[in-house]
Amino acid sequence: MTHVALVGAGPGDPDLLTLKAFRLIQQADILLYDSLADARIVRMAASDCETIDVGKRCGKHSASQREICELLVAAARTGAKVVRLKGGDPMIFGRATEEMAALDAAGIAYEIVPGITAATAAAASLQKSLTKRATARSLHFLTGHGAEGGLPAHDWVSLTKSGGTLVVYMGARTLAGLAAHFIEAGMDPATPAIAVENASLATQRNVSATIATLPRILAAMTTTGPVLLLIGAAMDEAGMVERELEDVSTSFL
User: Using CA atoms, how far apart are residues 152 and 98, in angstroms rounded to an integer?
Assistant: First the structure.
């Protein structure tokens, strides 16, 4: 029976793979992987597994999404055990919708194996909760990269008024525009903002600033890995501690 799995490779660190992802990678006959899938994870495949690099990253595409879908369907039709390895979680900015549609159209069954997304990996490494009682009651995942390469058409006012933590994927190149829109929509320029490059890897770099100052700092840096942006009051660790102490002291009054 044909078996196709869209598998989340997680943020990079092989130790963050799920057990199910690890098992399916080892059992795969054909492995189609993104450039964001760490090479150490790809090497977990069996020695006789056919590995195909379909990497897509920052506009440097080795295969178009249409070509990837065609390759995936062709591989599945051979009767092989096929794994489509995608960075992070397939269902979070992973373009899984197009690949599921292609498999559906071809009448090919598949399963989805979730992976740890970069947002939670970054939060864990920073030891900063993305949500916080009385500080950040909501969490919003955004893309900073539109289909045409510019800023997507977000509802900047609603996002700003939400008061939650904003996590921006693929936003390093458009950060100046993102920050300008948020501030124009009413966000305090002093709102904490952190850029995390290569979340979960030994090469991870963190830059803590504000939404007003982070664009200038990041523009002066040379980044080679994916950059995640974390924006909101919950990223202000000192402020979090002060509010927690206030909550405790109030409870004893």
Answer: 19
Considering 13, 38, 56, 86, which one is annotated as catalytic?
Answer: 56
Is residue 236 part of the annotated active site? The answer reads no
Query: What are the mean pLDDT values of the chain's consecutive 10-residue runs (253 residues total)?
Result: 88 97 98 94 98 73 86 96 97 95 96 98 97 92 82 93 95 95 97 97 97 97 95 76 36 33
Task: Say which of 15, 20, 29, 34 is annotated catalytic.
Answer: 34
Radius of gyration of the chain (CA): 20
What's the pTM value of the predicted model, to 2 decimals?
0.87
Question: What is the distance, to the nearest Å, from the Cα of residue 204 to the centroid of all Cα atoms in its chain?
Answer: 14
Cβ atoms of 169 and 211 closer than 8 Å: no
Residue 76 near residue 106 (C-beta atoms within 8 A): yes
| H-assigned helices in 78-141 | 96-105, 118-126
| Choices 3.40.1010.10, 3.30.70.1060, 3.30.420.40, 3.40.50.11030: CATH for 3-113 | 3.40.1010.10
For residue 128, indicate whether it is catalytic. no
Copy the structure tokens of residue 241.
């501690």
